[in-house]
Amino acid sequence: MNTGDMEGMDMGGMYMSDMDMSDMDTVDMGTSWMIEEYPDPKCYAENDALLQTLAYCMYSHCHTEANSTLQRYWEMNVAGTEANQPLPKESYQQALWSIGFTPNITVNSTEVLRSASLVSGATYTLQYNTLTNVERVETSHETYGLVLILTGAIIPISLSMARFIPFPGPWKAKFEALFILPPLIGNRHKVPVFNTFIMPTRGQALFIAYLIIINIILSAVGYETANPSAWYASEPIEIASYVSNRAGVLSFANIPLLFLYSGRNNVLLWLTNWSHSTFLLLHRWVAVICVIEACLHSAMYLQIYSVDYSYSSESKLPYWYWGIIATLSLVILIPMSTLQIRKRCYELFLAWHIFFSLLALIGCYLHIYYEYAHQYGFENWIYIAFAIWAFERGFRILRMARHGILTAHVSIVDDDYIKLEIPGIAADGHVYLYFPTLTWRMWENHPFSVMADFQQSGDTRTSKRSLDCLAEGKEEIAKINITATGNDSGSESAHGSRQVSLQGRSGLLIYIRTEAGITRHLRGKSHLPVLVESTYRPTSIVGEEITQAPNIIAIAGGVGVTAISPILLGHRGWHKLIWAVRSKSLVDSVEDALGESRFKQMNAVIFHDQRMEIPRLLEEEVARFMEQELTVVVSGPPRMADEVRMVVARLIESNPSVRLKLVEESFGW
Fold first, then answer.
1. How far apart are the first and last CA of the chain?
2. What residues have CB less than 8 Å from 2, skipping those under 6 apart?
3. Are strands 604-608 and 417-423 parallel, antiparallel or unpaired?
4. Taking a C-beta distance cutoff of 8 angstroms, is the pair 183, 189 a contact?
5. Rounded Cα distance, 600 and 586, in Å
6. How far apart are CA 560 and CA 35, in angstroms?
7. Taking a C-beta distance cutoff of 8 angstroms, is the pair 228, 353 a contact?
8. Beta bridge partners of 632
9. Is residue 207 over pLDDT 90?
10. Cα–Cα distance between 188 and 347 in angstroms, integer?
11. In what side-by-side order are the strands of the sheet with 507-513?
């Protein structure tokens, strides 16, 4: 017997068949009376006959092992495997030496064990084969769980690093046009199919297919049977138990991936060029896989215990009902996270999503604790998931706490848009804003693109609100260049604008299209406290690569211009902005906020109240750059983003000499 085999053996299983402890009369300190139960751990730890019999069995079959190994096994397994089990009253060597004779009889299972006895060869072989096989299968469960979580993290990193391989430009473009950019089916990616389902791109679908296939394969391979087994009544029940355990472990292994993919402080976002929207899509697919495996684990064990009539007793145990709570929590999350619910009541969705996610984690942990009490390490999957969640939330707090409580100033642009100015902070890319006094749901936060920094603007005109801020001692306000819109309940238009230059720190300029949620409440405010969680740079841009692109054509729809403006203002090569916007007030406000010179720097072609023919416009621009690299950046409504995606893919596929890249700037649901 090797060390690994010994570590997996259960002492209760060493004495079955001819010395089956479940059938044997319990020795009660010299008194013999029969009960149909296992002896308690104290009896195992103190019964001389049992200790001597076990010691002689180990001496006979494990003579190649070191005494230290045998002693460790003796201490950890003689009285059972519970965390608080009593230690044997004597060591392995002491029990062996106390025998005083060479055992030569085998006690029948119907007799009381009164002195050291032999374990029959058939019994030993049966138990050894059973326990060795169980250990081998259980090891495969954990190994396959590690394969799942490691490949789920490593493959995105590896695929992202492949972009640095110096393949010819046309090859890369052709590959992306055929296998990465287009939707898997049809022409929709950002526009939901049946207003419910987000169709993945072909590139996303390839990785989703991998996740599905690897889970199926890992659920189906690596099973062996003891044949016969001392634990299971039949081979089908043995295999069913192994499959159920495998499904449970894989479901546990998927939970850390769930938390990893969902976080905006996601290590994979820092190491890859995949967008947060892509990881959110993967998060939802992994959630479905995780729930299916959890349901499979629960359903199979329900069937197994129903067959052997132990359901009524098992279902009353804590491990059972906490497992049910965990499974139901996971199941409930799926229908409660559909796109329609997320869009109609996002704040409530966020609250119950966090609640049921934590309830599922707690349920999984207690399910394992009450069944195994930290003996086999199944709880490590839950520790990993909780660590990922705590890391992500901790980073949010750090990003937010470093700025403190700031003041946001609200200006009405028109019936659809508002302008938000936050003095005293510098940030770029995306920020998440919390308005703790706006509603009773103070934890709510939403992402917004930072259009510009006050200090960057070249126009020195400012609104009366900025003068009021200065009068109130707001020295931190930067060189603000804001033009009053005249639409904030008439208060600013009545006072007009004055030209001043305010010195100090910078601030943020954000434009928001008001919807039915928290942004609607901003319209009734002129200023309010705000917490800013920053900075989240657009990961789809891959660091500074976009600013180094030789040529950029940017297509924006409405307030989508806020994500594109910083890119164009920081770009030194040729670029052009094509902006479709219905609100003339928004155009005027953006021009006033940026300043005339910086607004012109974007080379904007504005389509106001007229249809923008994206295919024709892109074809014309691409024709000018046949032998040069051209990056297309799009930020706007879902239909616009999907149309640009399909046109870019078609242009690359139809003309091998075209060197196009697509960058999509949008927030995913």
1. 56
2. 65
3. unpaired
4. yes
5. 16
6. 77
7. no
8. 553, 662
9. yes
10. 27
11. 445-449, 430-434, 527-536, 405-412, 417-423, 507-513, 452-453
Cβ(188)–Cβ(646) under 8 Å?
A: no
DSSP letter, residue 22: T
∠ CA 288-289-293 to the nearest 5 degrees? 115
Side-chain half-sphere exposure of 82, counting CA atoms within 13 A = 13
Element (H, E) at 31: strand 31-32
Q: Which two tokens stand for residue 346?
A: 């996002």
- Which residues touch 364 (CB under 8 Å, ≥6 apart)? 252, 255, 323, 326, 381, 382
pLDDT in tens, 524-580: 899 999 999 988 876 544 445 677 788 999 999 999 999 999 889 888 889 999 999
What's the rounded Cα separation, in Å, for the pair 261 and 267?
9
Is residue 228 reached through a cis peptide bond, with omega within 30 degrees of 0 on the bond before it? yes
Q: What does residue 383 show for φ and ψ, rounded to 5 degrees? A: -60, -45
DSSP state of 183: B
Strands 574-581 and 551-557: parallel
Q: What is the pLDDT of residue 168?
A: 81
Question: What integer pLDDT is reported at residue 39 of this predicted model?
Answer: 78
What letter represents residue 547's amino acid?
A: T
Give all domains of the chain, ordered by start, each with its CATH number. Answer: 3-119 (no CATH), 128-393 (no CATH), 402-536 (no CATH), 540-664 (3.40.50.80)
**Taking 80 as the threshold, does the pLDDT of residue 604 lie above it?**
yes
| Dihedral sign (CA 112, 113, 118, 124) | positive
User: What does 185-224 look like in DSSP terms, one character per residue?
Assistant: SSS-SSSPBTTTB-PPBHHHHHHHHHHHHHHHHHHHS---
Look up the pTM and report it: 0.83
Q: DSSP letters along 367-390, please?
A: HHHHHHTTSSSTTHHHHHHHHHHH
Determine the distance from the C-alpha atom of residue 308 to the mean position of all C-alpha atoms in its chain, rounded to a whole number: 38
Distance CA 542, CA 545 (A): 6
The helix/strand/coil state of 9 is: coil
Q: Is 435 helix (H, G, I), strand (E, B) or coil?
A: coil
Question: Does residue 28 register a pLDDT over 80?
Answer: no
Angle at alpha carbon of residue 396, lines to 394 and 400, rounded to 5°: 120
Residue type, 191: V
- Distance, in Å, from the CA atom of 95 to the CA atom of 47, rounded to the nearest integer, reads 11
Peptide bond into 535 cis (omega under 30): yes
What would the two tokens of residue 468 be? 């009021």
Strand partners, 32: 27
Rg of the chain taking only CA atoms, in angstroms: 34
Task: Give the separation between CA 604 and CA 555, rounded to whole angstroms.
Answer: 10
CA-to-CA separations, 512 to 349, 421, 457, 488, 625, in angstroms, rounded: 22, 11, 19, 15, 34
Residue 184 one-letter amino acid: L
Q: Identify which of 11, 6, 131, 129 has the alpha carbon closest to the alpha carbon of residue 63.
A: 6
CA–CA separation, 138 and 517 (whole Å) = 49
Closest-CA residue to 490 (of 411, 607, 578): 411
Q: For residues 69 and 302, what is the distance between their CA atoms, to the nearest angstrom?
A: 38
